Amino acid sequence: MHASSTLIPETEMDVHTGKPSQAQEGSARHSIWRTSILFTLVTAVIFGLAYPFAIDGLAHLIFPHQAEGSLILHNGQIIGSSLLAQSFTSDRYFHPRPSDAGNGYDATSSGGSNLAQTNAKLIARIQGDVDKLQKENPGKPVPIDLVTTSGSGLDPDITPDDAYYQAPSVAKARNIPLATIDALVKQHITPRQLGFLGEPRVNVLELNLALDKLGK
Asked: Does the predicted model carry a pTM greater than 0.85?
């Protein structure tokens, strides 16, 4: 007996249109959605949970001090971080760079003034600071970082030239020989990383803590 027609399986191509059957299209769509959802879940677990926890764990294991925020303790109390500038107004201490970060050196308001170099307000402010500093150290050029802000407004470091420029005022306020203050500055100069990365710098908070240890 010969059949006049045959049934076409749903998973095969439609012989009339040459296109996948509806069942095959539905199966393909289901496969795409399933793959997309699984991919999203897997990547979320790997990069949203596993990777951050692994990096955090390694950081605490290899660099525990840095991982905790590079906090500085004094007499058992946290007084700051070596990564953030603090305000020092007394002549007995070294001062950090000027800041435009919100209220003083507020770490929650990090940022600069965004004023252009040609801005009259910025020029007037810098010139005023230069004039004031030159009265304190006549004849000495004022280091540029002593009168300009950093991009974050929270730079904890100053240049060695900046520290040496402030040294006479600190020595006078504490009644300490200038040579002693200069030697202290030299001890706190951090050189370039690996000999070529960055610039030599002095951490202001650490230097001021060393000043207090002199006992004057």
From this structure: no
Residue 216: exposed, middle, or buried by beta-carbon count in 10 A (0-12, 13-18, 19+)? exposed
Distance, CA of 66 to CA of 145 (rounded, Å): 26
Q: Which residues of 103-132 are buried (b: 16+ CB within 10 A; e: fewer)?
A: eebeeeebeeeeeeeeeeebeebbeeeeee
Mean pLDDT by 10 residues, the chain (216 residues): 46 52 62 87 95 91 86 85 90 93 78 87 93 90 93 92 96 96 97 92 96 86
Shortest CA distance to 94 belongs to which of 158, 33, 36, 152? 158
Buried b (16+ CB within 10 A) or exposed e, 7-44: eeeeeeeeeeeeebbeebeeeeeeeeeeeeeeeeeeee
By the 10 Å C-beta count (0-12 exposed, 13-18 middle, 19+ buried), 194 is classed as exposed
Neighbours of 162 (CB within 10 A): 24
Collapsing DSSP to helix, strand or coil, 197 comes out as: strand
Which has the closest alpha carbon to 119: 158, 148, 153? 148
